[in-house]
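User: Sequence recovery, please. Input:
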C-alpha cells in the first residue's frame, strides 16, 4: 500500500492524526518510512513510522552520516511531542 493510501486509511480512523514533515520544505520526505497505524485501548489511532527507514532516508536523501541522522532523529522526531496525535516510531526487529 502506498503512503497516500496509508494516510487516507489513518485519517478514516483519526482525522487529527499527525504525520512526519520532511526536511527542506519537502512534506513527503518520510513517506517511505510510514508503515501503517497503531491502536491502543481508549487512545487515538496514530501513524506508525519505521525508525530504520527514517534513518536510511536521512542518510541517503539528505546525505547525513549515520551519527548525524541519529542525532537529527533523536532531537527532531523522538524528542518532539505534538500532543495526543503524535506519530509512533518503531524498530522493526524482523528487518535487522
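Assistant: Recovered sequence (96 residues):
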Amino acid at each position: 500500500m502506498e503512503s497516500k493510501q496509508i494516510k487516507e486509511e489513518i485519517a478514516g480512523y483519526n482525522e487529527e492524526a499527525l504525520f512526519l514533515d520532511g526536511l527542506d520544505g519537502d512534506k513527503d520526505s518520510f513517506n517511505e518510512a510510514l508503515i501503517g497505524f497503531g491502536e491502543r485501548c481508549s487512545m487515538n489511532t496514530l501513524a506508525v513510522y519505521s525508525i530504520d527507514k527514517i534513518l536510511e532516508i536521512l542518510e541517503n536523501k539528505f546525505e547525513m552520516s549515520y551519527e548525524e541522522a541519529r542525532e537529527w532523529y533523536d532531537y527532531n522526531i523522538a524528542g518532539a511531542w505534538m500532543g495526543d496525535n503524535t506519530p509512533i516510531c518503531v524498530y522493526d526487529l524482523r528487518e535487522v
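The longest helix spans residues 66-78.
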